[in-house]
Design brief:
Distance between the termini of chain A: 20 Å
CATH topology of chain B: Lipocalin
Largest sheet of chain A: 9 strands, mixed, barrel
CATH class of chain B: Mainly Beta
CATH architecture of chain A: Beta Barrel
Helix content of chain B: 10-25%
Strand content of chain A: 25-35%
Largest sheet of chain B: 9 strands, mixed, barrel
Number of domains of chain B: 1
Shape of chain A: globular
Strand order of the largest sheet of chain A: 1-2-3-4-5-6-9-10-11
Strand order of the largest sheet of chain B: 1-2-3-4-5-6-7-8-10
Oligomer: heterodimer
CATH architecture of chain B: Beta Barrel
Radius of gyration of chain A: 19 Å
Structural class of chain B: alpha+beta
Helix content of chain A: 10-25%
Radius of gyration of chain B: 18 Å
Strand content of chain B: 25-35%
CATH topology of chain A: Lipocalin
Number of helices of chain A: 2
Chain lengths: 251, 240
């Protein structure tokens, strides 16, 4: 906890020093100049909600994506339950993220690092500070590939349902960790993410995990992200001066 | 190369390549500026190996310590290259490796470049901000851009002193490095890049590369690149 607090403090000091006093353009502000997080959500030229901006994850989900769910809502297949218990008991020593491999999705959305959403022609891009990674969400009508090369971030296509951006993803690797706690994900995983921006300052994300190889039924989590205007992503280089790995020894 | 081509097609098999010929004029954005957006790849690895390719020896004048370090790296067959340790390339080296495509995304106020190699990205701010004087040093620096006619001029500083400017030569750079990159889309299918290296702590005078050609890669996209996964190369990078 002390380490976490120290890190947060360091980050807070470092961030303003980078793009000194530069206010994010286009941010609605209160009369005192502060970002007005409760202002209406912006729209793009075509009238759709504009999701662009820097956002931070709600605290508390890093270790357990399913923390708000009741027992039984996450219903493991037996092998997946055994694996999950093993990961818990060995304190995450086999966590791929510790080896500087990408966190994957949806885990990138529950780690304590901001991400930036960009709206472009036919595509929404998310830049993640964590592990310096990105994800492309194709909005040009293409379908998910039937037999993709498995990847950590998967393949994502999106469409609008009213004011909700619906993103479908598949094509994941077989050893995804959905959170630091080690909820497993497999190549059979299909994610549905529903993004809504109720006001300028927030994005509500509903994630449905449908992975019949690991879970007997789909399960859904809800997260609320907070906008972080007048800030920027910081360079994150996992492989540099890495000292943690040899301490990850389990029990 | 064949294998790569097959894999790419298998991934986005439903995405048709554009029918626009590469020789067509460069597209424009709504504000009349050239639109650099697209998936690009450097022509070969000429500048990746030697950023000073095509220049005369007197064009690049390293200070004595920089020359000694560069020679040491070259003699040691670049066994200490940070890129071999999954660390970022630095700028402008990141644009130069013709084995991996990159994707330019042009939005109002911000140009983003996504790189396949190492899964990296760069943000180039076009909103008038300037780089703070005393930034945290980074591998990829802080970039701002502006238009000079049809040329996107990107200024980058705030580097750490660990980046290599090129691979075979291993030219060093310091925290004083300031890079100016000039991107010009000369036709639908062609993008030219020239970089100026201004690093008074390492070189006696600024120097400018010859023109690096880049070609549009239609009908394809970036693949996921995970440097640390099943990594087998590093133990073999022993130098001499």
């Amino acid at each position: 906890m002390t380490t976490a607090v120290t890190m947060m403090f360091l980050f807070a000091v470092a961030a303003p020093a980078q793009w000194l006093n530069f206010p994010t353009p286009g941010v609605p502000r209160t009369p005192d100049g502060k970002p007005n997080l409760s202002a209406p959500a912006p729209k793009t030229a075509d009238g759709k909600p504009d999701l662009s901006g820097i956002f931070e994850s709600p605290p508390g989900y890093t270790g357990n994506l399913a923390r708000d769910l009741k027992p039984g809502e996450v219903s493991f297949q037996p092998w997946a339950e055994t694996l999950y218990k093993h990961r818990q008991e060995t304190q995450g020593k086999d966590d791929p993220q510790a080896y500087c491999v990408l966190s994957g999705v949806p885990r990138e959305h529950v780690v304590p690092y901001p991400f930036k959403i960009l709206n472009t022609n036919g595509m929404i891009v998310i830049l993640y500070e964590a592990l310096h990674s990105y994800r492309q969400i194709f909005m040009d009508g293409r379908k998910l590939p039937k037999d993709p090369n498995p990847t950590w971030m998967g393949y994502s296509v999106g469409h609008w349902e009213g004011d909700t951006l619906v993103v479908e993803s598949s094509g994941f690797v077989n050893n995804e960790w959905l959170d630091n706690g080690g909820h497993p994900g497999t190549e059979a995983m299909h994610l549905t993410e529903r993004f809504r921006r109720p006001d300028f300052g927030h994005i509500d994300l509903e994630i449905t995990i449908d992975d019949p190889k690991a879970y007997t039924k789909p399960w859904t989590v809800k997260l609320r992200f907070t906008a972080a205007p007048d800030s920027e992503l910081i360079e994150y280089v996992c492989s540099e001066n890495e000292k943690d790995l040899n301490h990850l020894v389990g029990k | 190369m064949n294998l790569v081509a097959i894999l790419i097609l298998a991934q986005w098999v439903n995405v048709p390549a554009t029918k626009t010929p590469p020789s067509a004029p460069a597209p424009k954005t709504a504000d009349g500026k050239p639109d650099l957006s697209g998936v690009w790849e450097a022509e070969g690895q000429t500048y990746f190996f030697d950023l000073a390719a095509g220049l005369k020896p007197e064009d690049v004048v390293p200070l004595p310590w920089a020359q000694a370090l560069q020679k040491q790296r070259e003699d040691n067959i670049h066994g200490d290259d940070p890129l071999g340790r999954c660390l970022p390339h630095g700028v402008p080296r990141i644009n130069t490796n013709g084995l991996f495509p990159y994707k330019i995304i042009q939005t109002p106020g911000l140009v983003v470049i996504l790189y396949e190699q190492l899964n990296l990205f760069r943000q180039i701010f076009m909103d008038g901000r300037s780089v703070a004087k005393d930034v945290n040093p980074t591998w990829l620096g802080y970039s701002t851009g502006k238009w000079d006619g049809d040329t996107l001029v990107v200024e980058t500083s705030g580097f750490n002193d660990k980046t290599w400017l090129d691979t075979e030569k291993g030219r060093p750079a310091t925290e004083a490095l300031h890079v100016t990159e000039r991107f010009r889309r000369t036709s639908f299918g062609d993008l030219e890049i020239r970089a100026t290296i201004d690093d008074p702590k390492a070189y006696a005078k600024p120097w400018t590369t010859t023109v690096q050609k880049n070609h549009l890669q239609p009908g394809t996209d970036l693949l996921e690149f995970i440097c640390n996964e099943n990594e087998k190369d590093r133990p073999h990078m022993v130098g001499k």
